[in-house]
Design a protein that fits this description.
With 50 residues, the chain is mainly beta. Helices cover 0% and strands 50% of the residues. The chain is built from no helices and four strands. A hairpin with a 2-residue loop joins strand 3 and strand 4. The chain is elongated, with a radius of gyration of 12 Å.
């Protein structure tokens, strides 16, 4: 399973569109097997990222 969490100022962000980055966690058998941090594209209403 892959879980994505929006992050702003190093903490969980309540609004995906306001996040500074996303933390992606790969989980297997209840354990975190990998983590990746990605920067999202600029936020603009109605724009779908590539």
């Amino acid at each position: 399973m892959r879980i994505a969490m929006p992050i702003a100022q190093g903490q969980l962000c309540m609004h995906f569109g306001h996040s500074e980055e996303f933390a992606f966690f790969d989980v297997e058998d209840g354990e975190i097997k990998g983590k990746q941090m990605l920067t999202p594209p600029p936020h603009a209403p109605g724009v779908i990222p590539k």
